[in-house]
Amino acid sequence: MKISVKDGPSADIRTGETVGDALSELGIASLDILAAKVDGAVVDLSRPLSANSIVEPLRFDSSEGREVYRHSSTHIMAQAVKELFPSAQLTIGPALEDSFYYDFAFERPFTPEDLERIEERAAEIIKRNLTITRREFSKQDAIDFFKARGEHYKVELIQGFPDGEPITAYTQGDFVDLCRGPHLPTTGSIGTIKLLNTAGAYWRGDERNPMLQRIYGTSFPTSEEVDAYLARLEEIKRRDHRRVGKELDLISIQDEIGPGLVLWHPKGAAVRLLIENFWREQHIRDGYQLVYSPHTARLDLWKTSGHLEYYRENMFPSMKLEGSEYQLKPMNCPYHIMIYQSHLRSYRDLPIRYGELGTVYRYERTGVLHGLMRVRGFTQDDAHLFCRPDQMEQEVSRVLDFTFFVLRTFGFHQFEVFLSTRPKESVGGDEHWTLATSALEAALKSRNISFHLDLGGGAFYGPKIDIKIKDALGRSWQCSTVQVDFNNPERFELSYIGEDGKAHRPIMIHRALMGSIERFFGILIEHYGGAFPTWLAPVQAVVMNITDHQRDYIAAVVAQLKAAGFRAEADLRNEKIGFKIREAEKAKVPFMLVAGNREMQDGTLSVRGRSGSNIGNKTVAEVLDLLQTEVTHAQQDFHHTH
Ligand SMILES: [Zn+2]
Ligand SMILES: [Zn+2]
Fold it and tell me: How far is CA 35 from CA 112, 173, 221, in A?
């Protein structure tokens, strides 16, 4: 059979030869190859080859390679736990983006001392350099095998697998784990395993199930990489929006109010107001009409929209009122549809673009709630566009331009774009899907945006474009989405009168740029570590006196700044100036303006930046200029290209 290395040599290889051996015969063998992709599927190096194929070696520098690496690391950690604590039962242990975890059923939480021992034992298992082998079972044999080993969670997992398909397990020394694989060839292929922390986690994420003991860890080829990763983790912790949100008094989530329900304190609310004002202003400029809709509606509306059938588990329970049932809204779409439908529409009226900062409520299990990132009540920066099929591409292009403009304004400059196509379970005719998918693709191409194809990843009602932003720490966050919808126009029997005088179905586009304001704020907090750019800072300048003599001067300066539209505060407390500066620095205020007698006499201020930079003495007029430049520089206008 002919085996070719991707972008490399090819040769005739004996059928049945393993991937690893084939690579050596092709002269590509090296210890840093972790696994390989054969015709697109990631497999073990020990997998035999049976047909002509293209082989791509995977190393630590690829995300697939890292996943295999981390996944193998989680097995090594699990083996260490089983050796030290034989009564611990295995459950699941996936690889994460830069780390991994394993959940064990164990009678008590693991202590920091346990973690040290487990880490040492993992290092020992790496040293043993055990061969990792794959083994196939029938479903019944797998159940019997893991039952005999006392691994009841594994048995439960296997029972949930489809009948008739082989089940695989991986063995290293005496350790066997149910696993789809693939894995590294030996335990010695791992450099260093570092355990990070423990947490409680419910089996299958459901709080009605037993609590498991989760251990998080990471692994890298070298210890230097581990150190760099740990430093990054520290930085992530330092920027955690829950911590910063509390330190800067931006938001709170209180149990008396309910999990996943956010209180915006004055400073957080000030930032939100800026975000919202910017959002509204730009939408109006870009041809959107802003609307408002109530937080609840008759249950029947959600029946028509299909949410009751397809989305009920994510909705709050309905409530009875005057013999009718009402539903707290999980989405804004049906309301916008009803506004569209309130008039007869002509082809000349389209496109119609409705935008709303619409607050929705969704049921999320307590276990998955996370600060601002996963909540039960949040405001979507939502919009629905109704257009003719021939307008789709242009509308999507406009939305893309607008999205990138908004995201860039907030300081995000790196994006990852995905185009998701028709999933197996979906509604609508092929011609619709083809038309919409090619319109999305054409829009991306017309803007020279490179994108990944997510085959089958679309919504059941239409294809979509998702945009992920990268934050200052290189983490990706999915925020923006543009989704074509054939289903709702059908369900609500939407129409417009075409040029031919007949009724036609419009196409509906759902889109959100930030996604949820709560989550976007959480991302912003972490992106900036709370040090918002001047245009977004809740307080832009604190003006401080050195002695009581300058009180009136300070008050006059603050009044001037405020009159010019800046958010300024006076700090007239009878405290040392060093203390006041430190406080303002801690509050991440962009500018500290200090006045003693000399400044007062000269009509100047001594200006400091929050990073400790000394900007020098400036007149009040110069300070106003400085602030103005900072603000306008960040908030460029959207130059209309369409
Ligand atoms: Zn595994
Ligand atoms: Zn929608």
Answer: 33, 20, 15
Q: What is the pLDDT of residue 639?
A: 53
Cis peptide leading into residue 489 (ω within 30°): no
Cross-strand partners of 607: 593, 616
Could you give the angle at which helices 152-159 and 139-148 cross, rounded to 10 degrees? 170
What separation in Å is there between the alpha carbon of 329 and the centre of ligand 2? 12
Residue owning tokens 């089996």: 203
How high is the pLDDT of residue 642? Answer: 42
Say which ligand is closest to the CA of 386: 2
Task: Give the pTM.
Answer: 0.81
- Say which DSSP state 18 is in: B
Taking the C-alpha atoms of residue 173 and residue 474, their distance in angstroms, rounded to an integer, is 38
pLDDT of residue 427: 83
For residue 355, which ligand has an atom nearest its CA? 2
What is the H or E stretch that residue 606 is in?
strand 604-609
What count of other Cβ atoms lies within 10 Å of the Cβ of residue 487?
Answer: 20
How far is the centre of ligand 2, averaged over its atoms, from the C-alpha of 578 (Å)?
A: 52
Written as six digits, the tokens of 94 are: 């996936």
Contacts of residue 203, defined as CB under 8 A and 6 or more positions apart, other chains included, come to 91, 103, 105, 153, 209, 210, 211, 212
> In which region does residue 529 sit, left (phi positive, over 0), alpha (psi from -120 to 50) or beta (all else)?
left
Distance, CA of 229 to CA of 219 (rounded, Å): 10
**Catalytic positions, written as ranges:** 333, 362, 380, 382, 384, 464, 510
What are the average pLDDT values for consecutive 10-residue runs of the chain, which has 642 residues?
A: 90 92 88 92 93 94 95 97 96 93 96 97 97 94 95 95 92 94 94 96 91 97 95 94 97 96 98 96 96 97 91 94 96 97 97 98 93 97 96 96 95 96 88 92 95 92 95 93 93 96 96 97 97 96 96 96 96 96 95 96 94 91 94 66 42
For residue 325, with 0-12 CB atoms within 10 Å meaning exposed, 13-18 middle and 19 or more buried, which class applies? middle
Distance CA 511, CA 382 (A): 6
CB 274 within 8 A of CB 410: no
- What is the distance in A from the centroid of ligand 1 to the CA of 398? 45
Tell me how far apart the terminal alpha carbons of the chain are, to the nearest angstrom. 55
Residues in a beta bridge with 469 = 415, 477
Please report the pLDDT score of residue 154 as a whole number: 95
Spacing, Cα 394 to ligand 2 middle (Å): 19
Which ligand is in closest contact with the Cα of 93? 1
Produce one character per residue of 275-312: b if its CB has 16 or more CB atoms within 10 Å, e if not: beebbbebbeebebeebebeebbebebbebbbbbeeee
